[in-house]
Amino acid sequence: MSERKILLDERHLPEREGFLGSKITSMGADGSILKEVKTPFCDCCGILLKEVNPALCSCHRKICPSCTIIHENRAYCRECAKQIIAVTKQDFFILYGLAHETSLSDIKGISAMSSDALEESLSALYERGLVESEGIFIFTHYSVTDKGLAVLATAEQIYRREGDASNFIAKIQEASVDR
Ligand SMILES: [Zn+2]
Ligand SMILES: [Zn+2]
Questions:
Q1: I need a surface site. Which of 1, 120, 136, 176 has the fewest CB within 10 A?
Q2: How far apart are the first and last CA of the chain?
Q3: Where a domain ends, among 83, 115, 149?
Q4: pLDDT (tens digit, 9 = 90+) per residue, 49-103?
C-alpha cells in the first residue's frame, strides 16, 4: 500500500493583532502544498472583518466600524481614545448636560452623581479649559467651550452605548424637548 500524499492542506487561523489578514501558500519537502489563510477579526469586539473595512489604531489594533472612535479626523480604538481625551463618564455627563442647556442640579439629579463628584469633575473641566463660567457664586453659569465641544464629540462616541450613559442622554434629550 502506497503512502497517501497530501497535495493540498488548507488551514484557517485567526490573524494576529495588528495584521489585516493574509494568505500564504507553501510547499513542503515532500511536495505537499499548504495553504494558510489568516482571517482578521476586530481586536476590540471580535467580529469577523471580512466584509467591512477595518481601521488601524495607532496601537496596532484593527477595529471594525462600530468600535472605531473618530477623534480629530483620526480613527482610534476605544481604549486609546479614552486615554487621549482623558474624560471620565462623570465629566461626560457634565459636558453633555451643559452643552444641552441643562442646569448643574438637573445633571446631578439625572446622573445620580454625588455633589462631591460633580464639584470635582467640574473644577477639573474648568482647569482644562473645557468649560467656562460667567457670573459669581450661586449665579454662576457654566458653559462648554469650543475645546470642550470637540472633546465632547469624542466622549459621546466612547460612552453613548453604555447603559447608564445612554439613559442619561435620552433623559437630557427629553428634557430639552420639553423646554
Ligand atoms: Zn469591533
Ligand atoms: Zn488603540
A1: 1
A2: 87
A3: 83
A4: 877 778 899 999 999 999 999 999 999 999 999 999 999 999 999 999 999 999 9
> Based on the domain organization, do 40 and 114 belong to the same domain?
no
Identity of the amino acid at 99: A
| Domain of 35, in residue numbers | 8-83
Give CA–CA dist 3/9, Å, rounded. Answer: 16
pLDDT digit string, tens, across residues 114-142: 999 999 999 999 999 999 998 877 678 89
Residue 85 Cα to ligand 2 midpoint, Å, equals 13
> Domain tally for the chain?
2
Give a yes or no: residue 3 inside a domain. Answer: no
**How far is the centre of ligand 1, averaged over its atoms, from the C-alpha of 32 (Å)?**
37
- Whether residues 95 and 146 fall in one domain: yes
* Dist. CA 25 → ligand 1 center (Å): 29
Q: In angstroms, what CA-CA distances link 35 with 32, 38, 39?
A: 10, 10, 13
Angstrom distances, CA of residue 72 to CA of 18, 76, 136, 150: 22, 10, 34, 8
